[in-house]
Amino acid sequence: MSEYIFGWDGDNGMGLKLIDDIIAGRKTATSSYKRYFDINRNEETPWDRLGKVIAVKDKYGKTHCSVKVERVYLWSLDEPPAQLVKEENFGTDTEAYVNDCLDMWKTDMPEDVQIKPDEKLIAEEFVLMK
Predict the structure, then answer these.
(1) CATH number, domain at 20?
(2) What's the predicted TM-score (pTM) here?
């Protein structure tokens, strides 16, 4: 089974908060920068996961739930899709959503790597499996 891992060393509990949000139905999508998949070509891509059930794990490898990927698409920070913003529980506040993404990702990117406004991202929308 494929897996999503939420959390990283020094995340101050963010990974577990995201998992709690998935279980509570507040988080129904996840995004990452496309360049990650361009660099790691031997890894499973989001399009490979489309229609599959994915285990949701924390940074220690514990499975908390499973989700099914229903939609995958490209987007950019300067034009976040309204549906994604809504599904990530930001209503219509695209600016707040983009700022939240940038805050989260800055801990994951080396300091010398800049995320540009037209950065290509990949979103995966999912439903919680009961």
Answers:
(1) 3.10.400.10
(2) 0.83
